[in-house]
Amino acid sequence: MSQNSTNTFHGNINKYTGTDNSIVHGRKTENFGTYNETNNGGEESLPENTRIAFLEHFKPVLIELAGCADAWKDPDSKELQDLWAKVMPDDMKGQYSQCGKGIRNLAVESLAEWRDLFGDAAKDALDDILEDKKEEDRGKFIQEQTKGNHWDRVYYFSSVSDGKPTGSFQSQIVARTFSAHFKAIQELPEEKRSKNPPKAALVLSILAIERAFKHYEAQTQGNPPTGKFSSDEGAKQSAPRIHRLFEKKKDGKDRVSAEMWGKIIAVAKSRLEPPTAAIDVVDPDSQDESEPPEDLDYQQ
């Protein structure tokens, strides 16, 4: 909650001219009398020491929290204020009441930049993979990788065992893209991180990879893509469908177990530097349904 500030002027007022872009409540002038102004908005620009403290203490926790929540949902003002009070040093806790608007603006900007990391990472990973392939083979490779339903895309898996895809969400392109999240929070000690799996970060990784594949196809047709991943409306609309891959089944069991999450995260962390391993290709059913099968279990 921002702090109210009141300015009071006494004396003869012949003329008052001012420019104020914030919401103002209670402005009143009467016959050369008293002028009162109450401003409920915090400072939009942060003092330098507050900005530095935001980047050092608040931003990594904010990103880590967002990575475990919903792919495109930013915390509201109360959630930000509560988080600020929880994680900031004592001498900074009171800054939210004075600089709430600036903190909120910087939080929105930070989360947009975080989402853009996935878009950049997916593009870089795909570029590296395609670099080793002949020009005429690249389109075929992308078609093979994007076969299947949205819950069993070929590129999700790292290998095939006895005819079944294994290593769910541990392929080169998924791991490299997902690693962008851990790079963003690398300054946050492990013991201070959430015990919840970073579902939103993995959802963003998948959506960014889908976008990278589509962008490559668009480029080959002479239509170079524009815009940032964080403002991709198609990806935003697809997010709920991908989120469902990581929800519980009707029997209450997780589609992705805690043990598998550990493996997915470990592989992603190992890919913080560009890897050299190739992606294995499998060919699942090409039909794309809106809902994953109820008995779907991802293999480790």
Structure description:
- Residues 244-253 have a biased composition (Basic and acidic residues).
- Residues 282-300 have a biased composition (Acidic residues).
- Residues 218-253, 275-300 are annotated as: Disordered.
- The protein is mainly alpha-helical and 300 residues long.
- Among the domains are: 5-39, no CATH class; 117-270, no CATH class.
- The chain is built from eight helices and five strands, in the order E-E-E-H-H-H-H-E-E-H-H-H-H.
- It has helices at residues 48-67, 77-87, 95-131, 135-145, 172-184, 199-220, 233-243, 258-270; strands spanning 5-9, 24-28, 35-39, 157-161, 164-168.
- The strands form two sheets. Strands 1-3-2 form a three-stranded antiparallel sheet, with no helix packed on it. The chain has a two-stranded antiparallel sheet with strand order 4-5.
- Helix 1 crosses helix 2 (77-87), helix 5 packs across helix 8 and helix 6 (199-220) packs across helix 7.
- The two termini are 46 Å apart.
- Mean pLDDT is 81; it is low at 1-41 and 274-289.
What portion of residues is helical? 40-55%
Class of secondary structure makeup: mainly alpha
What would you report as the Rg, rounded to the nearest angstrom?
25 Å
Instruction: Please give the order of strands in the largest beta sheet.
Output: 1-3-2
Please provide the ordered H/E string of secondary-structure elements. Answer: EEEHHHHEEHHHH
| Total DSSP helices | 8
Span from first to last CA?
Answer: 46 Å
Apparent shape: globular
Main sheet makeup = 3 strands, antiparallel
Strand content: 5-15%
> What value does the average pLDDT take?
81
**How many extended strands?**
5
Uncertain residue ranges: 1-41, 274-289
Biased composition (Basic and acidic residues): 244-253
Region (Disordered): 218-253, 275-300
Biased composition (Acidic residues): 282-300
